[in-house]
TrEMBL record:
Residues 61-222 form the MOSC domain. InterPro entries: MoCF_Sase_C, Pyrv_Knase-like_insert_dom_sf. It comes from the Bacteria. This is MOSC domain-containing protein. It comes from Bosea vaviloviae. One of its GO terms (molecular function) is pyridoxal phosphate binding.
Amino acid sequence: MGGERLERAPLGAAGVEGDRIWGLLDGSTGRIASPGREKHFIEVPRGHARFTGDGVAVSSDGARWAAPDDPRMLRELAGVFGFNPVLKPFGPFGAEGFRPRYEHAPIHVITTAGMRSLERDHPGSVIEERRFRPNLVVDWPDEAEAMPEQGWIGREIRIGEVVLRGSRPCGRCGFITIEQEGIPLDIEILRTVVKRYERNFGIYCDVVVPGEIRAGDRVSLS
């Protein structure tokens, strides 16, 4: 579902507080939503979710919010998604049972330099961070490499009081092609990422030193 932009975000070993603590399933089949892989779930990004400090709230329109088990809101989301949704809390990372689809890295980072490179490689497309669903967007100058963050793998990335370590490239699926609010369908963008960047765009990171990240924090590498 569509996420939210934060001005400050506490980070722990598992990532941003409140991130990936609930899952969305099709109530009739029990399948967890995967919009980038199954057309059945392609409308899921039209819904909205946000962290409330002690849980998650969801919305069908981004204006009215309710708890994940609110019957009226679930009916409204069903009208948006085209199936009857069930929202369910995940167990702890590594636990048996209902587990997140993305357990391989707690943090996903992209740079503005990488987005500008993709704009040059794929002119006419709407290149916006919501296509790529990062935890962090780093404002970074253009370098000789089209995607500077690829050079951060294995390095420590200090952002304010937080230290991350780049772990691996972020491989892309069909999610980056689908339509979202204000972002049109773009089938060709995935082909461009495959051809130009070997399917990778952005990087995954581990949390070395937890803390709080704030918009505008200085970023440095070591």
